[in-house]
Amino acid sequence: MIVGDLSRRELGKRLAGDGLALQLGPFNLTIRSNLDSFASLAHQLYEPYPLPDAEAISDFHVQISAPRGLRRWVRRQACFGVDGQFPFAPYTVEHAFPALEWGINWCVATRAHHLLLLHSAGVERNGRAILFPASPGHGKSTLCTALVHSGWRLLSDEFGVVRPEDGLLLPLPRLIPLKNESIEVIRKFRPEAIIGPSFLETRKGTVAHVQPPVNSIRRAQEPARPRWFVFPRWVADAPLTLEPIPKSQAFLMVATNAFNYEVLDEIAFRLVTEMVRSCDSYSLIYSDLDEAVSALDELSRTDDV
Amino acid sequence: MFRAACETRRAQRLLLEALQEPEKLPGLPPADWELLLRVARRVRVLGRLESDLERAGLLEEIPERAAAHLRAARNVISHRNTLISWEVNRLLWALKGIDVPLILLKGTAYLLAELSPARGRIFADVDLLVPERRIGEIEERLVERGWFKTQIDPYDDRYYRVWMHEIPPLRHRERGTEIDIHHRLLPKTSHLKSDPESLFTAARPLADPQLHMLAPADMVLHALVHLFLEGDPDEGLRLRDLIDVHDLLCRFGEEPGFWSDLGPRARALGFERPLFYGLHHVQRLFGTPIPPDVLRGLEDAAPVWPIRQLMNRLIPLALLPGHPDYPSRWASVARWLIYVRAHWLRMPPGLLAKHLSHKAWLRFRGFRRRVDLAQLDLKQQ
Questions:
Q1: Which residues of chain B does A270 touch, with a Cβ-Cβ cutoff of 8 Å?
Q2: Chain B nearest CA to A203, separation (Å)
Q3: What are the b/e assignments for A37-46, b being 16+ CB within 10 Å?
C-alpha cells in the first residue's frame, strides 16, 4: 500500500489523529500534523511512498503543528516536534513542509548511529553505486537529481547510509530539496520532473522538492555496493574534468564528510578504509549538467567491459 | 483525558518493567517496543537496556528494529566513554607537577573506577572535586594548557563564583569536552550544611595515584544530593540518577560496614533528608535490597506528615517520563515544584527570589532568542 492509495480525506484524518505511518528506506516514520496546507502537499508529494506494515515499529515520531495555547492566535506558526519535544524555534506556517523535511533529516543525522552516515549523495546503476561526498553548495543535490532523471536509481541526495555489517549502501530515497538557481536548472534539464511548490525566503533561501522517480522509491529496500567516489564541484563556465585522485586523499575527504564518523570510531575507520580500497575515486568539475551526466555514464560503461 | 491517563500509565509501566525485568523483553509486542523506545530515549536509558539485554544474551531475541536503536545508543556511549577517559588522561598531563588530590565525581568516577552504574550510561562531561584553596592554581594551569573559560554573562559568573559549589565550566579548545570543577557538593548558600574537608580524608585512591573517588557512603549521598537538588524545570528529577543510586547500593551494600555507616555519615554531612527520600523511592521503583533497620533508623529524618504525603506524590511524577504524545499538566507542575524546592534548599529566600526572577527574565528573553539550529548545516550537530 502506498500513500496514493489513501484519499486526501483519509490522509488528513491520519495526520490529525494517530499519525501517518511512512516507510523511508531503512526507517519507519510516523508523521502528525494539524495543518491543512501540510496535508495537501503531503498527499501530492509523498504519493508514491509505501506505508509500513501495521505491526511495524516506527523509528521516529515527528510532527509539524500549530503551537499550543495563546501563541497560535498571535502569529501563524508551525513547530517541528519529535517525541513531544520541540527542539527548534517555530517556523512561519508557510514553511511547514520544508521544516518537516528538514526535521526528518535532523532525526536521521542525530539518532541513526547504528549506521555509518556519510554526508554524500548516492546513485546506482547495474548494482554499482557512485557516492558524491561533498559539503553543501558543491551541487551534489542538483547533479544527483539530473542523474536520477537519466537512468540512475536514487539512493539519497544527502546521506550515504552504510550498513556496518556488510558495507552495503542502504537507499534513503527522500524528496530532493533543490535550492535557489538549481530549481530552474532542473526544470530546464527535465521539464517532466515532478517538482513541488517553491518556498520563498526559507532559512536556506528558496527551496523546492523534487519527487524521485517511482522506480527509486519502489526499490528502496534493495541495498547497493559502492563502486566509485566522485567528489563534485560546480564551477561556472568551467570545462568538464573528471580525474582520478589518490586513495589517501579520498579517504580523508570521505572521513571528514560524515555525520557520525567519530561516533562509530573504529567501525567507521574500517568501513571507510574498505570502501576507499574497493572504489575508484575521481574529482569532478562541471558547469553543464548534460556533460556531467554523460561523463558519469561513460565512467560506468567502462566498468561493464 | 481518560485515554491520556491510561497511556501515561502504560508508558511508565513499560519503562519500569523493562528496567526491573529485562529478561522479559523478548516477549514484548512491537507496539509496546515502540513506546518503550520513545520513553527510554527521553530518560536516556536506551544504553542501559542494551547492556542488560547483552548481559542476558538476549539481543538477538528482540525485534531487529528495536535492536538497531539500542545499537545506536551503545555506539554513542562507547564513543563518549573514549572521550571522557581521554579527557581525564589529558587532565593528568596538564596538572603534572601540581600536587593536589583530584576526586572524580559522578559518571567520571563510575567510569574510571569501573563501577556498575557505568554500564550503559551516557556521560556528558568530566566532574572533579578539588580543595577550594587550590582552584585558582588549577584553573590557571588548565587555561595555559588548552582549556578556556566558557563565555558566560557577568551575572552567571558571579553566581558561580560567589554562591555555587563549582566554578564556571572549562572547555577544551580543540576537543570541546567540558570539565566541571567542584570544591564542595552543594552551593555555599545551601541550608544543608556540607563540610567538604571530610570528603577528602575519606576518599579512596584509584589506579593513578593522583586520582580518587569518594568513599562509598559519600558517593551514594552525592548521587542523591545531585538528584534532588540539581533539577531542571523541564526535565524534572533524572531517573537516570536514581538508577545510579540503585546500582551503587547493590554494589556497595555487599561491603561490610557500608549500611551501618550510611545513616551516620548522612547526618554528619547534613544529607539525611535526601537519603530518606532516596532510599524510600529507589526501593519503591526498583526493589533495591535495603536492610529494614537502615530505613527505620531514618524515620526521624522524614518531614512532617502532610509534606511527606505531598512529596510521595510529587517525586514519582517528576521522576517518571510521561507519554510523549500526551503531556500531563500535573507532571509539569510537579517538576516545577520540585525545581523550586531544590532552589529553596540551595539558597536563602531573598537570594532565591532574586535569582529566580533573573532566570525568568532570561527565559522570557531566550524564548525569542532560542538558538536556531535549523540555520546550521546538519553536519555541525
A1: none
A2: 6
A3: ebbebbbebb
What CATH number does residue B32 fall under? 3.30.460.40
Contact call for A203 and B377, based on CB within 8 A: no
Query: How does DSSP assign B310-336, residue by residue?
Result: HHHHHHHHHHS--BTTB--HHHHHHHH
Residues of chain B found within 8 Å of residue A135, distances taken between Cβ atoms = 377, 379
Express each pLDDT in B149-191 by its tens digit. Answer: 877 777 777 777 766 778 888 999 988 889 999 988 877 767 6
Pairing of strands A205-210, A241-244: unpaired
ipTM: 0.94
Identity of the residue numbered B233: P
Residues 6+ apart with CB under 8 A from B164: B187, B188
B70 belongs to a structural domain: yes
pTM: 0.90
User: Which residue type is seen at A274?
Assistant: E
Enumerate residues 6+ apart whose C-beta is below 8 A from A125: A151, A152, A153, A300
Nearest chain B Cα distance for residue A57, angstroms: 5
Residue of chain A with shortest Cα separation from B37: A59
Q: Is B154 inside any structural domain? A: yes
Select from A56, A173, A59 the least CA-distant residue to A113: A59
Cell 526572577 identifies what position? B357
B381 lies in a domain? no
Within 15-34 of A, beta carbons closer than 8 Å to B belong to 28
Contact list, A58 vs chain B (CB under 8 Å): 34
